[in-house]
Amino acid sequence: MSSSLNLLTAQCQPQTTALSEAELPTWLALVPGWKPVKYDDMPPAIESHFAFDNFYQTMAFVNAVAEIAHGQDHHPDLIVSFGACTLRYSTHSAGGLTPNDFICAAQVSALPEATAA
């Protein structure tokens, strides 16, 4: 992938391998507002926090994310509260981050409902 524009039109691939540590900075540059995270025994992931004025806006965003997840067959971990949603992408089957995580992150960030905090 050479640009975030490519990520917006890309389809997730069913069989992917984890990106190397050396590849991650290039991919992270394509998804501003997302940061790498590592929690306990979970594989490495990317995460972003989105803030909203109320619960209705938060849920509209979550529903839009669900459409992307369903269409790409790649599903994030979500933490939902009254006026916020945190998303975390990782490809568990690959044991780390793959292009699929960055494809979905870019598509989520491009949602009209997305106002990254």
Automatic annotation (TrEMBL):
What Pfam families does UniProt report for this protein, alphabetically?
Pterin_4a
Top enzyme class: lyase
The record, for InterPro entries, names:
PCD_sf, Pterin-4-alpha-carb_dehyd, Pterin_deHydtase
Which SUPFAM superfamilies does the record associate with it? Answer: PCD-like
Keywords, in A-Z order: Lyase
Q: Does the keyword DNA repair apply?
A: no
Keyword Cell inner membrane: yes or no?
Answer: no
Q: Which GO terms describe its biological process?
A: tetrahydrobiopterin biosynthetic process
Could you say which EC number(s) this protein's record lists? 4.2.1.96
What is the protein name for this chain? Answer: Putative pterin-4-alpha-carbinolamine dehydratase
Name the species this protein comes from: Roseateles oligotrophus
Q: Top-down, what is the taxonomic lineage of the species of origin?
A: Bacteria, Pseudomonadati, Pseudomonadota, Betaproteobacteria, Burkholderiales
